Amino acid sequence: MTDLKQLMQMGQQLQQRMSKMQEDLQHQTVTATAGGGMVTATADGKGDLKEIKLDPTCVDPRDVEMLEDLILAAVTQAQQKSRELMESEMKKAAGGLPMGGLPGLFG
What's phi and psi for 24, nearest 5 deg? Predict the structure, then answer.
């Protein structure tokens, strides 16, 4: 019975850590660029896009397709960095808890 009680306590600790982590991730940002810095995308730690910046020299009405590709590349990279940040923070939040003992917790 002690093992079950310990497991419940560990689950509560993990839940508290995860809540804190999610709150912290909202205040962290990741930035990615495309086209040698012509397009910059910034997302928060949860993956929500917060800002797009364009170098005015890349705004060519005759080549909108290139600009669209650059924006897509920067956003995709920013979202990937955000996922990596979240995974890193989840591992920290789990801090030594036996993840094998909690099947399905992370997906």
Answer: -65, -40
d(CA 71, CA 97): 40
DSSP states along 27-65: T-EEEEEETTTTEEEEEETTS-EEEEEE-GGG--TT-HH
Six token digits for residue 89: 């923070």
Q: Model confidence over 9-59: pLDDT tens digits?
A: 888 888 888 888 888 888 889 999 999 999 999 998 888 899 999 999 988
Domains of the chain: 25-85 (3.30.1310.10)
- For residue 66, give every residue at least 6 positions away whose Cβ sits within 8 Å of its Cβ, in sequence order, or none: 58, 60
* Of 84, 95, 72, 68, residue with least CA distance to 28: 84
pLDDT band at 107 (very low <50, low <70, confident <90, very high): very low
